[in-house]
Automatic annotation (TrEMBL):
InterPro entries: Metalloprtase-TldD/E_N (IPR002510), Peptidase_U62_metallo (IPR051463), TldD/PmbA_N (IPR035068), TldD/PmbA_sf (IPR036059). GO terms for cellular component: cytosol. The keyword DNA repair does not apply. Pfam families: PmbA_TldD_1st. Transmembrane segments: none annotated. One of its GO terms (molecular function) is metallopeptidase activity. It comes from Caldiarchaeum subterraneum. Keywords: Hydrolase, Metalloprotease, Protease. One of its GO terms (biological process) is proteolysis. The keyword Hydrolase applies. This is TldD/PmbA family protein.
Length: 127
């Protein structure tokens, strides 16, 4: 994944961005729909994507993409850059503070893993 984030930063730099950040996020959710206490529908959904934020001539551009191939990422960077470029004629000068470069990862660890809870117990909790 890190290679894709570095690719986004490289493409943004080649376009002329003065600042660029790329963030990967993956969310897992389960849904159960009850009708009169009876489970009608259930689904497990995994969503993932990369958000891109960049500065060009003091204007901020943003894009999000959930297709994680290089071509989709390049198009998303281009979209964010185009938005920032268009706004640069209208906006105030935005600057980011000078800070050390940081790489971080945050994983929320539940007390009880959701996938270890029986579906019948989940439904009972919803009633």
């Amino acid at each position: 994944m890190e290679d894709l984030l570095n690719y986004v930063i490289k493409v943004g730099g080649q376009l002329g961005s003065s600042y660029i950040e790329a963030r990967y996020q993956r969310d897992h959710q389960s849904q159960i729909v009850l009708k009169n206490g009876v489970a009608e529908v259930s689904a497990d959904i995994v969503e993932k994507g990369i958000s891109i934020r960049l500065l060009y001539k003091g204007s901020l551009g943003f894009a999000y993409v959930n297709s994680l191939d290089r071509e989709s990422l390049r198009k998303a960077v281009s979209t964010a850059f185009s938005l920032a470029k268009s706004a640069s004629r209208l906006s105030q000068n935005i600057r980011m503070s000078e800070e050390k470069l940081v790489s971080a990862s945050d994983i929320v660890k539940p007390r009880v893993k959701y996938e270890n809870v029986d579906t019948a117990d989940k439904i009972e909790l919803l009633k």
